[in-house]
Amino acid sequence: MSEKISVVEIKGDEKEIQYVNLYESPDKIYTRKISGFFQKIRRYTGIPLIVGFMLLPWLTIDGRPAVLFDLPERQFHILWTTFWPQDGMFLAWLLIIAAFVLFTVTVLVGRVWCGFTCPQTVWTLMYMWAEDFFQGDRNKRIKLDKQPWSLNKVAKKGATQAVWLFIAFLTGITFVGYFTPVRELLLGFVPVIAEDGFMTYEISAVAAFWTFFFMTMTYLNAGWMREQMCMHICPYARFQSVMYDEDTLAVHYDVARGESRGPRKAGDDYKAEGKGDCIDCSWCVQVCPVDIDIRDGLQYQCINCGLCVDACNQVMDKVGYERGLIRFTSQDGLDTGKTHFVRPRLFGYAGIVIVMVGLFGYGIGSREPLSVDVIRDRGVKMYRISGNNVHNVYTVKINNMDQTPHTYDVSVTGGHDFKVRGYRPMQIENGEVLTLPLRVSVPKKQLVETKTEVTIVVTAKDNAEITATQVASFIGPAKH
């Protein structure tokens, strides 16, 4: 089997065949540190996301974590609302809404989610900051890697790896903290001296496994697989192009203004020499986190982070040229100078999102805080006769999904004089599911048919608006 495969890559209007060695590691990418407008946006969008992710499991509401996906209890606490497995449709709708929001944003401004708010990007920025802090900027890191191992190199590399592992551990324990109370989880990692003198840990094996699993994945993804995740693993990079059109805003290189590129001396009449504004400094490539050259045209690897825009603008300032050789614009903007924001595809996506958000909000607002499930006893004897009455036995599950305890009454309605026997109203705590047998009787002489529909009604004694019903079948003796 050949160890090389050919890849057809489209750069601008041209196709180029590249050969990729499957057994050869790609060259390490050394990104140049840059400052500018888009880098600030990345920082200002990334920091709130990190802070929110890290702090949310620590917040408490009514004595419980503000966000807790309690899988053993099948309860999903999100702020002041508790969701149950039967609310799974809301999760499906939420994912669909998120997908269409992503489609809408992509049609408008391209792949900015990847460049500014994707967790892969945000965590990679933290790891790159640690690299830059301990090992220096791009040229220093290249020089350090070429040096033989020494105490200085071990110290810089070791400090970087230690910070990487620390960030990864915090990420892992925080992520698991959304499924297990984070305070108990963290205390479980504190060693305890047992009676026999040995050191033990109170954390469960399952919680420890998932904490170290997500720690490892974070360490690998943000530390060693940065651009590989964006270029080869993330599916969004592959299908984003179907949502682009001629008016989608993305990072573009102004070919008409920049070509032909090349170095020049200060004061040269470079335009008389047939050169454009691009001085071929390669800064746009050096700052790119996925190591592409935006001057080759729009490429699927581009995450629209805008770092090449900041780099090029700095170079243009130094040489005294106008900014915007590389900029956020559309293909129409490059060709005609105008971008059309009013277009059917964009408004179609936006309209769908507005409708779905409205329906989702209505569904959440009208969600019932009580559910009841009734199963008729399917024993050998489907009914019992006691005196002049026919009895059926049911298993009733009352699920109090409200945030406060309630005492519930149970009644039965139907075409005859049905009565509940042996039920005593009892308080059900918030989030509790009560399972109880329920006996229903009716005078034998009222039954006309063998099978009759009845409705089990459960109502909160302190709030008549909290009610739930379930239709069941009542079985009686056959008429002859």
Task: Produce the secondary structure layout.
Elements: E1 4-11, E2 14-21, H1 37-55, E3 60-61, E4 64-65, E5 67-70, E6 75-78, E7 81-83, H2 88-109, H3 112-117, H4 119-135, H5 138-146, H6 151-176, H7 182-187, E8 192-193, E9 199-200, H8 205-223, H9 226-233, H10 236-239, E10 250-253, H11 255-258, H12 283-286, H13 307-319, E11 326-329, H14 331-336, H15 344-365, E12 370-376, E13 384-386, E14 389-400, E15 406-414, E16 419-421, E17 426-428, E18 433-443, E19 451-460, E20 463-475
Antiparallel strand pairs: 1-2, 3-4, 5-6, 6-7, 8-9, 10-11, 12-14, 13-14, 14-18, 15-17, 15-19, 16-18, 19-20
Helix pairs in contact: 2-15, 4-6, 4-8, 6-8
Question: In a few lines, what is going on in this structure?
Answer:
This protein has helices at 37-55, 88-109, 112-117, 119-135, 138-146, 151-176, 182-187, 205-223, 226-233, 236-239, 255-258, 283-286, 307-319, 331-336, 344-365; strands spanning 4-11, 14-21, 60-61, 64-65, 67-70, 75-78, 81-83, 192-193, 199-200, 250-253, 326-329, 370-376, 384-386, 389-400, 406-414, 419-421, 426-428, 433-443, 451-460, 463-475. The chain has 480 residues and is an alpha+beta fold.
